[in-house]
Design goal:
It contains two helices and five strands, in the order H-E-E-H-E-E-E. By secondary structure, the chain is α+β, with helices and mostly antiparallel strands.
């Protein structure tokens, strides 16, 4: 029996869900880390922090933005303080369900915000 690739990918992503101490975001929604993806962009290293947040669509925009800023300031910044090379940007994403990176799933809400890193702070960059 052959297992379809998309099912294997979802199982792989599900195994990668790691606690991130992120369940203490300001909105109170449960959040856990899925993965971190490194990308080289024109300006330098970009880190994509992907989080599972099953209630993300139920949280209003302002609260969700506050949660993402909290994740960047409280979870991500401490992790990357000694990283070399230092990233120039961090993208924080919240997804209601695990979705393979780069894939679209119309049934799953996904939210993304970008932050540039300056003076040990996350500075929101509105798209």
């Amino acid at each position: 029996m052959t297992v379809p690739r998309n099912i294997l990918a979802c199982l792989f992503v599900a195994v990668l869900v790691l606690p991130a101490r992120a369940d203490e975001v300001p909105s109170g929604q449960p959040v856990s880390r899925i993965e971190v993806i490194e990308e080289q962009a024109l300006g330098g290293l970009v880190l994509r922090y992907r989080f599972l947040a099953p209630e993300a669509a139920a949280v209003d925009f302002e609260a969700r933005l506050e949660d993402m800023a909290h994740l960047c300031d409280s979870i991500i910044l401490p992790e990357i303080q000694t990283r070399s090379p230092a990233p120039v940007r961090v993208v924080v994403s919240l997804s209601e369900a695990p979705v393979v990176f780069g894939a679209r799933d119309p049934a799953t809400a996904q939210f993304f915000e970008a932050y540039r890193l300056e003076d040990s702070r996350c500075i929101w960059e509105a798209f």
